[in-house]
């Protein structure tokens, strides 16, 4: 089993429900979910004039491979109504592979660790909550160290917490 961290975000519709439905589907897609961070409300980056996001990070394990996981996560996004019309625009759900073990992947369709992770406080805050000493396999800095580089705000913890369900027996996983 390989440890992984996934970043989830939503800024359209019922954001809490979108996150919970994504978590439930990820668990059914062969990812053994171990923990979920707190949920954070965050300002949008890269494209102004859109609603605030809710973001969180999941820690899990899988015996699958990165491209297979990406395919499953993209299907979950589509099933939940995600349409990629405006780059960095509003979205019902966004699921990013942040880390996949200590693997480094660099292909046209997938880059792991997520290339924008060090600049995103909305990812670093929940990552540092779950795994403060986890080290980025490229720059070798811990999540705590990367978070300490960010002085700007725009990230606020909220009361909502996703529920993790017990994992399915391995024979029942997709």
Quote the average pLDDT: 91
For the record, the CATH class is: Alpha Beta
Largest sheet entry: 6 strands, antiparallel
Class per helix and strand makeup? alpha+beta
Task: State the CATH architecture.
Answer: 2-Layer Sandwich
Q: Give the number of DSSP strands.
A: 8
Determine the CATH topology: Alpha-Beta Plaits
Strand content: 15-25%
Task: Describe the structure in your own words.
It is a single chain. The chain has a single domain, classed as Alpha-Beta Plaits. The chain has four helices and eight strands; from the N terminus they run E-H-E-E-E-H-E-E-E-H-H-E. The longest helix has 14 residues, at 15-28. It has 174 residues and is an alpha+beta fold. The strands form two sheets. Strands 1, 2, 3, 4, 5 and 8 form a six-stranded antiparallel sheet that branches. The chain has helices at residues 15-28, 66-79, 121-130, 143-148, and strands at 2-10, 32-36, 39-42, 53-62, 94-100, 105-106, 111-112, 155-158. Strand 6 and strand 7 (111-112) form a beta hairpin.
């Amino acid at each position: 089993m390989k440890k992984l961290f996934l970043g989830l975000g939503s800024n359209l519709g019922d954001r809490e429900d979108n996150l919970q439905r994504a978590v439930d589907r990820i668990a059914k897609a062969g990812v053994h979910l171990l923990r979920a961070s707190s949920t954070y409300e965050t300002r949008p980056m890269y494209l102004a004039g859109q609603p605030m996001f809710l973001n969180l990070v999941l820690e899990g394990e899988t015996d699958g491979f990165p491209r297979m996981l990406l395919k499953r996560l993209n299907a979950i996004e589509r099933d939940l109504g995600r349409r990629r019309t405006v780059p960095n625009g509003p979205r019902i759900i966004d699921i990013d592979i942040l880390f996949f073990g200590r693997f480094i992947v660099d292909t046209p369709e997938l880059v792991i660790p997520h290339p924008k992770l060090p600049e995103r406080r909305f990812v670093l805050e929940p990552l540092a909550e779950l795994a403060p000493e986890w080290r980025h396999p490229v720059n070798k800095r811990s999540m705590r160290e990367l978070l300490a580089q960010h002085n700007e705000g725009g990230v606020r913890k909220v009361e909502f917490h996703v529920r993790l369900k017990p994992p399915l027996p391995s024979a029942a996983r997709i």
